[in-house]
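pinging the channel bc i need a second pair of eyes. not urgent but kinda urgent?? the chain im working w is below, pasted from the shared doc
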Amino acid sequence: MNVLITGVTGLIGSALASELQRRGDRVIGVSRSPSADQISWEGVTPAFLNEIDAVVNLAGESIGGRWTKSKKGRILASRVEATSFLATAIGGADNPPSCLVQASAAGFYGDRGSEILDEFAGPGDGFLSEVCQQWEAAAKPVADMGIRTAIPRFSVVLANGPGALGRLALITRLGVGGPLGGGRQWWSWISLDDTVKSILHLLDHDVSGVVNVSTANPETQRKFAATLGKVLRRPAIMPAPGFAVTAALGEMGKNLLLDSFRLQPSVLSETGFVFEDPELEGALRRILNR
């Protein structure tokens, strides 16, 4: 299978490319500065897409960092413009790809407390929800063409390195980990390995529409912090009040750390997906080699 991946140099994109190549698929990455086995955005033409079997669109500005007006503009525009560009190119192909896997995020649901959110739950409020709604809408023309379109809404992806887990592990190792903003908010999560496996599942199975990419076992932030402390053998009792998180990190800190989202991966479960890392403690021990 010939698979085109945008965002191929990111955390998910690079891991997905490696796994596709390992199983024998051909991967073509899209990059602003293409290297071997990559092309520029200008190269994603209708004619080029005639030779592509599936597209995985992961492109978008990182949501990390303080959300200034210009940063928020880049977060939104990078996602909507890249998706609209792909939709137009796919629409012009004589022999278009048979599948589009179009990224979205759990931010679609907004801050929903303890409400259990399956794929039928409606959108929430706030900046991330608006971004996700516009992002998903930009891919609708592809589905309207009759091309199978799957929309994974990614929860927090756990991986060893400089990402979310790496930052939390660092402060926990320093002895200052603990509940954020009271710790009652729900955190939905998934390991990087299961994230890649879920995308392969969407490529290989007849799945369309929205798919929550999360384990069926979310945890409250307090329990998440305590479990991470247990795995790292460090105390995790130092609370960080919500106002302190917001003061330090602004709107980004509130949306990513204090908002509550409790996802239920109904579509993955109903289509036979089996998680490698269903439980938090085991996942953290494997990822952090503890």
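so Residues 107 and 128 are 5 Å apart (CA to CA). and The chain has one domain: 2-287. — does that match what u expected or am i reading it wrong
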